[in-house]
User: What shape does this take?
Amino acid sequence: QLQLVESGGALVQPGGSLRLSCAASGFTLDYYAIGWFRQAPGKEREGVSCISESIGSTHYADSVKGRFTISRDNTKNAVSLQMDSLKPEDTAVYYCAAGRFALRSTCVMTNDYDYWGQGTQVTVSS
Assistant: This one.
């Protein structure tokens, strides 16, 4: 069974940090582009960051650029999202997704991924 499981969500104060993890079972993340998305109450799901399959190129939404870092941990078959300088507007359910694209050296922050996790809640509040 192919599955993605997110973890690491929590309640954190503004300015704090969290590290989200996306772990896979049933397949190897090395061969997939990975995207992180989030959905706040009453809003559409939006792309946050992604990392490509082959050369590990990364992309970030303007709203998180300079604060979030996506990386692979191939030893754990996982992808992490390090989130620093968190703001209340970062509050959302965060999802990871895996997909294979024709251009292996890039990734996308649209919903065109094959596998999705169930999400982990991140709340930034004092």
User: Anything to note?
Assistant: The first strand starts at residue 3 and ends at 7. The two ends are 40 Å apart (CA to CA). DSSP finds no helices and eleven strands in the chain.
